[in-house]
Amino acid sequence: MPDPAARARRLQALHTDPRILVLPNVWDVASARVVAATDGVTALATASHAVAATFGYEDGERIPLDLHLQMVERIAAAVDLPVSMDMEAGYGDPGETTRRAIGAGAVGGNLEDGMRPLADSVAAVEAVLAAGTGAGVDFVLNARTDAVLLAAAGADRAEVLAEAMRRGRAYLEAGAPAVFVPGVVDREGIAVLAEAFGPGRLSVLAVPGRSPSVRVLEELGVARVSTGPNAQRVALTALQDATRALLSGGVLPPGTRPVC
User: Fold this and answer.
1) The domain 4-247: what is its CATH number?
2) pTM, whole model, 2 decimals?
């Protein structure tokens, strides 16, 4: 895929493919190359939390945007697959951040609503899509609603899902190709959202020990599953476990491979 427009079309097609799109999120060139070289991987997505942690920053737009974009650019240049950037909440200007993300090589991105007023969130979605159009790219926006993730403890489950549906439908009507609902991990909730948004629309986050398997998610109608910061946690857990083994007099894991 030699140009951004072609990469964007490929990424969009992967969302509507009958097979679920699996995106183990990456955070640097090494992780991107390892994931991209894995059989079956068709696209990459970055994780803002993991990219920020790589440079010693907390999540939540604390990493400077310039530094964040530099890593995205390095990742996009290192692989031949479509790359989606986690743009967090857009760094105060979703349209401009999208233009810069496209310039860095991203052809899709996440944008979180943080449960801001719906009209403001819809305007942000529209700004992202307009920036893509202006750059000649059908930017694949994974419009994120935090309705489930930020729900108050003890909140009525039906009301929480209803708010996620209200926001998600508004983003779809504004032109977003997909709606990302982190925090929903139960089969019933996932099925309700998948039906509400329609085929090829629902995106969820895989959570260790809580989420259904990818096979089940596909059966429930999920279009896209990503790992967020959990992919980096998998890698760092393995590193910490190997370090403990060495400190206790053991050896490195015998199955370790030179993958990069």
Assistant:
1) 3.20.20.60
2) 0.95
